[in-house]
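Weekly structure sync, notes
Attendees: PL, DS, HV (note-taker this week)

Item 1: DUF6090 family protein
DS walked through the input record. Source organism listed as Winogradskyella maritima. Sequence as pasted into the shared doc:
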Amino acid sequence: MSENRTGKYFKYAIGEIILVVIGILIALQINNLNERHKANIQEQEYYCMLLQNIEQDKAQITQLKILVQKRFEASFELIREIQKEKPETVLFAKKWFPAFQSSTTFKPDDAAYSDIKSSGNLKLIKDKTITNALNLYFKNVNGHSEAILSNRKSLDSKIHSLQTYFEAGFYQAYFEDNNKNFPEDIVLKVKADLPKYISDNYKSKLYDIALFLGTATQRLSEILLLIEKEVDTIKEILERKCKKQ
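Item 1 (cont.): predicted structure, written out as tokens:
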């Protein structure tokens, strides 16, 4: 009888252990399913966050293309003025300012991607073609952005080569429109002293800068088209992955 009881208790204990193990395995399976579900939700949110950043890049490109067109038009006016037989200093200076003031730097919005990488959650993006595409995207657009900066530095170097603003008409334009803080006698004497026309000696230098602005703007336009192509490519990929609720 004692042996029978021991055998029953042993079988009972084994059964209890098996039930506990099964319970643990079921709990682990449920937990794993929950974790995978959370990871899938997070992955989907990341795709949409990345797409939102890319859409900001697209909007930025659209705005920059508008600024580039304005710079084109201003540069054409600048060239036409300097091509005149006797270009007027004031008119040249007034066409100079809008031609050079527009900012055209492109900076990709990498906030979401940087956050994903810094948090160590890049592994949640299971489709590695996406991460490869993103890496290539930022590499390419950053390279194009460097080309834009180089283009701008070359233009700035040209401008800084001017040895005087006297013959370029900058002072003439200033004293015509913005001389409230200067005494009237100084203003009248300055206007009498400053040349009305750009001298032949200085005309070639300004002509060179005006033409360089036009060609630099053309190059900028070409770079922006390359960036836009990169933006459209990655945008199309992320639109397929982002399933907004």
